[in-house]
Design goal:
This protein is mainly alpha-helical and about 100 residues long. The protein has one domain. The protein contains 4 helices and 2 strands, in the order H-H-H-E-H-E. The protein has a two-stranded parallel sheet with strand order 1-2. Helix 2 runs antiparallel to helix 3 and helix 3 runs parallel beside helix 4. The longest helix has 16 residues. The chain starts with a helix and ends in a 13-residue tail after the last strand. The relative contact order is 0.17.
Length: about 100
């Protein structure tokens, strides 16, 4: 999970500099998991918080930047974003205002 978060965070600054507000579900979920006493991925607190918070966030996003390799969770977020009419990008340079070089 840490490597995935780092990869997503690497996109945050260029997105911000392009005028967007980057948001990761993990930025909200991880502190709440700590407060809820979660001890491991998949425990009751994790199930209560981790994916549901991402689902709530993505329902309010204008766009999603889908990076990385295979991920059922990321694919589900893309599906939900599409249902809400959000634009889906798979390359940073395709996001309005973002340049190829970071």
């Amino acid at each position: 999970m840490a490597a995935n978060v780092r990869a997503m965070e690497d996109m945050a600054l260029p997105l911000f500099r392009a005028g967007h507000i980057p948001v990761l579900g993990e930025w909200f979920a991880l502190p709440l998991l700590h407060l809820a006493g979660s001890k491991s991925v998949g425990d009751d607190a994790f199930q209560e918080i981790f994916h549901p918070i991402s689902e709530r966030i993505v329902s309010r996003c204008d766009a999603v930047l889908r990076i990385g390799g295979p991920s059922q969770g990321a694919d589900e977020m893309v599906r939900l974003a599409q249902q809400h009419g959000a634009q889906i990008y798979t390359r940073l340079e395709d996001v309005p205002g973002c340049k190829k070089s970071r």
